[in-house]
Structure formats: structure tokens, C-alpha cells
Design goal:
Blueprint lengths: L7 H14 L6 H12 L7 H8 L3 H10 L11 E6 L2 H19 L5 E2 L5 E6 L11 E3 L2 E3 L4 H12 L1
Length: 159
């Protein structure tokens, strides 16, 4: 994959985030969080800039970025739907919930619908084990998911 150099605007925005976080202990994760907040995702062309600023290899920066599921390499849809994949949710019908959601939305994990309405992401525990299966839409949690709740969620993201 050939990476295009960052534009001047992107470079300046990335540098601003780095400057705000570089003095922190273990600055890599705060920088990545800051970039995702700034851009809505972590632009791939930002990683070489981060690597140079932290005196680490591009491979190390890429490895940290891809290790954590919450970082995106492209913009998310207007809504982000996170489906719990932890054991309690799977044991309580989470696989059925996932199949229904994917069928209704027409996408898989780490994909966005063609109308940019929703991005579907896995999450590995929402802390709602007693109310499993669970999901989170734009920060609002839903427990005891069934076909009716799935329809409500899909209707919400399609509006």
C-alpha cells in the first residue's frame, strides 16, 4: 500500500494533537484518541507523523493502532452501532442478534452502510451481562435484544 503524504492542513491538525498529548506519560494512546476525536477516525497518513514525533517505527505505530478495536481508519457513519461479542452475550443469543442486524443493515463488522447511516462494530463487553445480549448505539446501551429491539435500532439509524 502506497501512502500519500499528508496535506499541510492534516499535518497541522495532527501536530496540534501530538503537541497536546506528547508530554503525557505513554502518549501514544492519548494521541490516537485525540486524532480520532479531531478527524472522526485516525487518518493513515497521520501514523508516520506520530511515529516520527514519538521516535518509534511506523510499524510500531501501526501495530498499536490496529491492536485496539475502537480506532477507525476511515470515517464512521452518522451512527455507530457496537454489538457485544463477550461470552455472556453470545450465550444469551448474541449470535442470532448479530445475524439479524447484519441482514437488516446489509453490512458486516467494520463496515458502513452505503448511505453512511451506520457503522457496525464489535465490542467486547458493555457490562450488561445480566441483560444480555446487548448493544450500544451512539453511546446509548440496549439490553435484552430481541427482534423487536433490533427493528427499533435499525429504524432509528435509518431516519
Amino acid at each position: 500500500m502506497s501512502l500519500q503524504p499528508a496535506s499541510t492542513e492534516v499535518t497541522e491538525r495532527v501536530a496540534s494533537v501530538i503537541d497536546a498529548c506528547k508530554g503525557l506519560e505513554g502518549p501514544m494512546l492519548p494521541i490516537l484518541h485525540g486524532l480520532q476525536e479531531e478527524f472522526g477516525y485516525v487518518p493513515p497518513e497521520a501514523l508516520p507523523i506520530v511515529a516520527e514525533a514519538l521516535n518509534i517505527s511506523r510499524a510500531e505505530a501501526h501495530g498499536v493502532m490496529t491492536f485496539y478495536h475502537d480506532y477507525r481508519t476511515h470515517p464512521a457513519g452518522r451512527h455507530v452501532l457496537k454489538v457485544c461479542r463477550a461470552e455472556a452475550c453470545q450465550a444469551s443469543g448474541g449470535d442470532m442478534v448479530l445475524v439479524q442486524l447484519q441482514a437488516k443493515l446489509g453490512i458486516g463488522f467494520h463496515q458502513t452502510t452505503s448511505d453512511d447511516a451506520v457503522t457496525l462494530e464489535p465490542v467486547y463487553c458493555l457490562g450488561l451481562c445480566a441483560c444480555a445480549p446487548a448493544a450500544m448505539l451512539d453511546g446509548q446501551v440496549f439490553g435484552r435484544l430481541d427482534a423487536d429491539v433490533i427493528d427499533e435500532i435499525v429504524d432509528e439509524v435509518r431516519r
